[in-house]
């Protein structure tokens, strides 16, 4: 596919567009969380559990990813377990730790809400050449790493 002409943009315009995307995404996450009976933090934790698949995360892994204390993540896991989204499994290598698994029926419920949105995003990606998608992927990956590092440096919970 040939790259389509794109309007010129400054870094400031790109940052503004990114800010609008993030704001819309945050509102959307709140709405989706309500649809599936969760709050945004619980939905974020569940997304990490889903993403991990068979490489089950520990409570400590989740606490680090969402920047909450291990005590707070215990409450999150209690809520997710109570509403049937996760199960806890003993860690096969350390009896003191548990690992968290997503329940398949819960994954299906969440994907049912997200799949139409992801289908639209896939259609949007179709407007970009493979080289442009590679640039987008590189930018998203690097920006995510930058954001995670910034959070680690400046926003770590006690």
TrEMBL record:
Domain HTH marR-type span(s) in chain numbering: 1-145
Domain of life: Bacteria
Name assigned to this protein: MarR family transcriptional regulator
Annotated source species: Streptomyces violaceus (Streptomyces venezuelae)
């Amino acid at each position: 596919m040939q790259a389509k002409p794109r309007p010129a943009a400054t870094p400031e315009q790109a940052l503004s567009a990114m800010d609008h995307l993030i704001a819309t995404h945050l509102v959307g996450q709140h709405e989706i969380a309500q649809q599936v009976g969760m709050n945004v933090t619980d939905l974020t934790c569940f997304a990490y559990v889903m993403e991990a698949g068979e490489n089950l995360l520990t409570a400590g892994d989740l606490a680090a990813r969402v920047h909450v204390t291990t005590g707070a993540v215990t409450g999150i896991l209690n809520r997710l377990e109570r509403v049937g989204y996760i199960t806890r499994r003993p860690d096969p290598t350390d009896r003191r730790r548990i690992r968290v698994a997503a329940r398949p029926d819960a994954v299906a419920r969440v994907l049912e809400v997200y799949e139409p949105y992801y289908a639209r995003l896939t259609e949007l990606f179709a407007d970009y050449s493979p080289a442009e998608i590679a640039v987008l992927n590189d930018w998203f990956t690097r920006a995510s790493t930058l954001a995670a590092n910034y959070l680690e440096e400046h926003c770590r919970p006690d």
